[in-house]
Structure formats: C-alpha cells, structure tokens
Fold these 2 entries.
Entry 1:
Amino acid sequence: MWNVEEFTESAGITVEELSAYVAESLRGEVPVLRRTPPRELADRLGLRDLIVKGGMTPESYRVFLRGFLAEGTRLHHPAFLAHQTATPDFPAALADFVHGVINNPMNIYEMGASAATVEFEVLRWMLEKVGFPAGGGVLTHGGSLANLTALLAARARAVPEAWDEGVPGDLVILASPSAHYSISRAASILGLGQRAVVPLETDELGRIDPSRLPDISGRRVMALVAAACATGTGLYDDLRAIGEWCREHGVWFHVDGAHGASALLSDRHAHLLDGLGLADSVIWDAHKMLRTSALAAAVLVRREGDLDAAFKQEASYLFYGDQGFDQIVRTVECTKAELGLKVFLNLAWRGERGLGEYVASRYDTAHRFWELARERPGFTLPYEPESNIVCFRYGDGDQAAIRERLMSDGTFYLTSTELAGVRHLRITVMAPATDDATLTALLDEIEALSG
Ligand SMILES: Cc1ncc(COP(=O)(O)O)c(C=O)c1O
C-alpha cells in the first residue's frame, strides 16, 4: 500500500537532507569522497538488519540517508575533478523523482504518451543542433549503448542481411586507438571481433590524422569513428576533414560526441564541432555536460530510416501493426526509463543559453588550470586543452601515487590516463563550484605532497 502521509513526510525528509548535502558539498569543507571498505560500511549503515527485518520509518530513513550521503562521492564538491559524470542540476533530479513515482517506461507510446512526446521533442531539438533536420533519434541508457546502437545502424547500411545471416569476415571499423573502449566492445558484440577494428594513424596526442587516412580499396568499411572529444585528452578530431574523406569514399561517418557535443550550445566553442553535419550518426550524452543524472544518451542519425533498419525482431506481444510512435523498435532496451524528461527539465529551466554558459564556463576553468599550472616549475602539460579535460604530470615520479595521496583523505578526486604510453594525471572540470581557488589549492597540494 502507498501511504500518502508517509510518502509526503519521507519525500520532505529527502528534500531537506539532499539540500543540506548539496549545500555542504558546494562549500567544499567535507571530503569529496570516502572509501570505507564495504563490510565496514555495510555495518555502519545497518544494511543487513534493514534487509532482513525491514521496518524502516521516516525517522530511521533520515538517519540512513544521512549516513549514505556522507559515505558517498560528492559531485557538487569543487574538488570533484574526476570522471565525466554530470554534476546534476536540480530540474533533472526532479525528473528522476517523478520517474520513480510514475514509472512510465515509454519505449512503447501507450506506456507513457507524455514521456514519449517529451523524448521526441528533446530529440528533435538535438537533431537540429547537430545538423540532421531530416534525421531520427532515440535516447538510450548511456553512451556505450548509444555507440553500439549507432554502429548497428551502420552495419545494417553496410550489410543489410547481417541481422539474419551474420557478419561477413571482411567487414571493418576504422577508429583511433584512443577511441572510447565502447567502440571496440561494440565491434565484438556486433560479431566483427577485435581484428575488425583497424587503427587509424594519429598524431602523438591520439587525434586522427586526416592526411594519413588509409587506402580502403578492396576493403568493406562499416564505419569510421571520430571523437568529439576524446575521453582521455578532451581533444576534438578534425570532423570536417574526416567527414569530407568519408563522403568521398562512401564511408559511414560516426562521431562519438558523448562528452563534447554539448559544446554546440556555446557560441565560443561550437567551432570545435565544425563538420559535424557531415556525419551519418552522432552520439551525445546528456549525463555528461547537460547536467542530468546517469543515464541519458542520444543516438542521432542523419537519415531516420537508418535507425529503423538497425533492429528487426519478432515478439507478438509487443511488435505488431503500425509501430509509428514506438521507440522500442530503435533500441536495445525493451523497458526504458523516461530519459527525455530529465533533459527536458534542465532545458526548460536553464534554456539552451544557460546550459551553453555552463559548458563554456567549465571549458574556460579547465583552460585556466592549464594557464596556472604552466606558470609553475615541475608541471608538464602536453597540450593546450580544448574542453574541460586536462592532462598533466608533476615531476618524473609515480603519477598514480600522487593521485592516491590526494584521494586518501578526500581532499581532491582526480583521475589518470596514459598518453603515448606515459601515465599522466587528468582532471575533468564538471562541478560549477570549481574555481581558481580550487585549482590553486590543487596545484599547491601536489607540490606539497611531492616536495
Ligand atoms: C567519448 C565517450 N564515448 C562513450 C562513453 C561511454 O559513455 P557511458 O559511460 O555513458 O556509457 C564515454 C564515457 O566517458 C566517452 O567519454
């Protein structure tokens, strides 16, 4: 039974606790993350008893929630500089709450007409932004699934019979070795195997070199994949030059814009995506730079029919008659959350302009880090950042050990990656609260720890 009074009280507690949590995170006076071992944490939160005995009340829920939040990772914290996961804005959080209550899995229209319609309109807006006015799209649970879906559409174009007959042995995908791992995973999932992923020539930073694209005569190329921007470095491939080559050679051009497509909303940064309109497919994650919670990723194709061709299935309880408004024919998922609502509410609250200003400010702050670090001896910065991702080294020592020390007391949370075989520290500026003072404190701390 749904007890309305208990729900109202518990929802109120949730809002109070989350508001306090976000405010505390924004001030940055608490650790950005904690790494209590799972057994100890389970005891501290009383999980075992709650699972077996139940009986949670609004009061005990408050205690649990407070402990749960305190032991997690704070993405609103200025020192959160790690993964490309959105610092959620509250309109999107409201959408998650609404979804949790109404649960309209709208992959078939009749299971949620309003949620499905919101998704259609969000997609229409995204399609216009990427330059596919006659295109089609679908929202899916994450960029990895979005890449898989786009490549499935590319496979259907290259080998329409593959769905029934399987994949011919000579089909290849061209991609930079630094492409997100979901691309090579998709190759294996699609039945091509790793051997079908042909590495493209790149510069020393992993950007595809358009002057050294391969001779493809005699080869069956399913797609070429470019990054906008690359996960490791945050650098954009030259989409125009690569796109023109793909047009000339009749190759499906897929752009992985999971992280960087949101720069389309910033007048000062949209040029980084010049040539995007030449693509056959693009993916764009809202749960990275459009500030929704995980997950909400768009698969966008230039020709609507290409997405419809990606999947063919028989299930008489779902697929029959005119599927006109049913997104289920375009996704791996059968049941799907109301992903469009969270993108929509962020747009409805902030507008394109507000989200564009957010993207621009995070890209600018990352650039500022680069400027500040360059002025200090001991820091090496292999490239000028184009997005909100920056790689760097301090000294010649073990960079992973520096990261470990920064994280051990929850002062800063950052990641690391290899560039040309050398491990670098890596920051991604996601949180709106990260400012010059945060960056200066990080640089000071790295010097102090290594001194
Ligand atoms: C360029 C790129 N593509 C795809 C993905 C995968 O997205 P997801 O984590 O939503 O599956 C990422 C994740 O960081 C990414 O950076």
Entry 2:
Amino acid sequence: MAGTLQDTIYAIATPVGEGGIGILRLSGEKAVEVADRIVRLRSGRTLASARSHHLYHADALDAAAEPEGEAASAHLPPRPIDEVLAVVMRAPRSYTAEDVVEIHCHGGPYVLQALCESLRRGGARLAEPGEFTKRAFLNGRLDLAQAEAVLDTIQAKTAGSLRLAQEQLRGILSQEVNRLRDHLVQLLARVEAGIDFTEDDITFIQPQELTNRLREAGAAIGRLADTGREGRIVREGVPVAIVGRPNVGKSSLLNALLQTDRAIVTPIPGTTRDVLEEVLNIRGLPARILDTAGVRQTEDPVEQEGVRRSRAAMEQAELLLILVDGSVLLNEEDRALLALHPDKKRLLVINKSDLPGLVPDEALPVWAKASSSGIGKVVRISALTGAGLDNLRDAIRTSVLRDDFESGDSAVVTRLRHQTSLEKAREALTHAADSSERMLSGEFVAMDVRAGLDALGEITGAVTTEDILERIFRDFCIGK
Ligand SMILES: Nc1nc2c(ncn2[C@@H]2O[C@H](COP(=O)(O)OP(=O)(O)OP(=O)(O)O)[C@@H](O)[C@H]2O)c(=O)[nH]1
Ligand SMILES: [Mg+2]
C-alpha cells in the first residue's frame, strides 16, 4: 500500500555492496525523533539538540524490539552497531524540504541492514523508489523537469549528457517552458476579454494579429520540441549498426573502436551469428554500437537466424555503418546492402585500407555516388591497423549531431515525455490559430490555448496527475 507524506521514511542512499562509507537517509516529521532513538552523540548531547547542517561523531545502536518478559526486567543497555557520523538538516533547508537525518556508517551490507532494521523498529518506513525526490517535488523544492534531471545526472554517461542534466536541474528548461506559458496566459487573457465584451463592440485584439501571435507562439514551442531529437541522443545514446556482407571486418571494427577483443574475428565468412551490443563514448556522443552477422544467402539455419537479426538491428539503428572490403571488388551482396534504408543516416566505410586498394582516394566521392544513392560520406579505414578510425569517429558524431549542438546555452529537451507534451501544445496552438483565422468564436480559440497551457504544464508539473508521477518516479532507485 502506498504510504503518505506524513510517514517518516528511510532508505540506504549509497549503492549496495561493500564500500568505505554507507549512508542512510531519513526524511519526515519524525526523522530526528526516530534517529534519536538509535544515534548517541559522543559529546553526550541528543541528536534533537544538535545544530542543523553539522556533522557529529556518534554511535548507532541497535533499537531492540520492545522487551518482553524476562528481557524487560534485565534492562540490557542497547548494543552499538557501528561508529558513525550523523547530520541533521532541518526543514526546509534539506533535499526534501522536510527534516532530514543522514547517518554515515561503514559501507558494509550487514551494517547497513542492521541500521535499517533499527530505524524500522524506531518507527520509520522504507521509502518507495524515488520517494525522497517525489517529496522534494511535492514540497515545491524542485519542479518535475528538475526531479527528472536528478535521475539523468545519476545516469549520465558522457560529459554532454551530464551537462544537459545539470542545466535541466538548474531550471533552464523549466524557465523556457514557463516563459512560453506566461506568453500563452497573456494571449488567453486577451482572447477571454474579447469573449466577455462582445456585446460592447470593444476589440481587444484584432483577429489577424491574434492569428499571427498564436502562430508565433506555436512556432516557438515547436523550436523547443525540435531540440528533442538531438537532446535525446545525448541523453539516451544513439544506436549505430555495423552492417556488411560476411568477412568485410565488422567485428574487427567493433573491437578496434572498443580497443578490446570483444567479438570473435576469424577469416571464415559467417563468424558472427548474434548481434553484439556495446556502449561507447564517441567524441562525447554515447553510441550503442551493434556488430551484426554478415548478410548473405545461406542454407545454414543458424546463420539464417543471424541474418534475420542483422536486418532487425538495421531497422532499429539510427545510423548505419555500411562496411565493404576495399581490397576486393564490390559484389551484388554489397550493392544490395547499399540500397537498403535510403531514409536512414548512412556512412559508407571502406575497410582494409592497409591492403592494396581498388579505389584511389580522389575517386571516393564519385565512387560513393555511383555505388549507392544518398550516401554522402565515405570513410576509408583499416580495422587492423586503426588507420582512419579518428575520421570515422568524427563522421559518426557529425552525422547524428549538429556541430554546434553543445555550444549553445539555450534550453534543450532530452526526454520523450517533454517532447510529446511540447508537440501536443504546438498542435493545440495550430488549432487555435486556424480557428482564429476562420473567425470562429473566441470560445474555441480559448479552449485550444488552454489545452496548450495544460500540455506545457505537464513538463514542469504545474499540471500533473498521479499517473504521470507514478511513471516518473518508478524509474528511480530506492534511496533517491
Ligand atoms: N588486412 C586486413 N584484414 C582485416 C581488416 N579488418 C578485418 N580483417 C580480417 O578480415 C577477416 C574477417 O574479419 P571479421 O572482423 O571477422 O569480419 P566480419 O565482417 O565480422 O565477418 P562475419 O562475422 O563473418 O560477418 C579476419 O581475418 C580479419 O583479420 C583490415 O582492416 N585489414
Ligand atoms: Mg563478425
């Protein structure tokens, strides 16, 4: 059963396993009271009298279950569990804006478990996933986009994804969304004033001007929504599939990019059967590189399944690295692969440049055009010697991200949830503008502007439902 805001909650805030330090966190009205039952400061003071935001040397004791019978009369002093540091952070100057206590003990799973058990007996309950952050949101410390940025910060894998998460945590996205909302609120006020005063023949805004304003507002929302494609790539990573006929060196390329011996490489065509996936940081771009089975006609049922998986990986990928062997002539299988997925981003990668090549460097652009339609870029590499891999990394990055993507400091959308809400808002405004253009009643225009406002409000949590909160916080771990 879901707990309430009145409960005092606890959880282990550090990762499970052995570590130098383990941290337990308590939050809620009774956080200090509960912690006081098990924490004895070395100075002899009680935790309740401790100064806020100061760290104290203490012992954590075993808050034994209510003594019964003989044990009760024995009055055994409580057993210390561990030597700890404890800090009280009084509301509202804490992560959750409630009273918070942190107990820093030794990072052993048993020590932490024993302290958890003590806190439970002391009257606190185990927090739900993300409940500390959810409380920070419900108590107005963070808005919803900022709460999501906490998770993105924890999960960031590259400098770029961390930077975007930190910007969102500082409120850059929320400010932009609020600016767009304020603008809509002003427009709505003028539309509504027009509805109320139609009798009096006062015009608050000319229909033509209103239409223009609504279109401009929709376009501004659209520009923010459009940062979502790249923003999500930086946050989530981009799937890149290495494809080609057997033996061209796909697995060798995966290994070369990873600089480890991850995939089996042999001179026998048809070596790779399964799709292998590895996450790599390519010039700050998190990429999920998929090594696939060589695509060819085959009677071998195992290899057939491999080829089927290769095709599925191609579907899933955002960028295809179409690999060919530069030391032999292109064959029908290469040509068939070059013709696939013309709508996707594709790079033609000519491997084995350490062997005598059949295509001189000057001819590469011409050759690319002749051998396939729509492939703009050709990169020549040797997976064996590593030659050309830097060029390939550059080409991978520039084919999915604009050059100046990370240099700007304007708001960027990194989550599908935000992108969807922005698109909903853009659509509502297009609708509103169309109604205004057709001189429909102000009521219709106002209704759509309100829908746009609601959609924007979902991003920051100004408008929210239990369902939205449920979906956001279930991705968090317990203790965050
Ligand atoms: N000379 C040279 N040989 C290479 C290069 N890259 C790969 N090879 C060789 O080509 C052969 C096939 O390499 P793989 O990486 O297994 O090729 P693949 O495309 O993964 O093959 P399948 O898994 O069978 O589809 C191996 O003998 C590699 O050593 C290269 O750049 N230069
Ligand atoms: Mg292979």
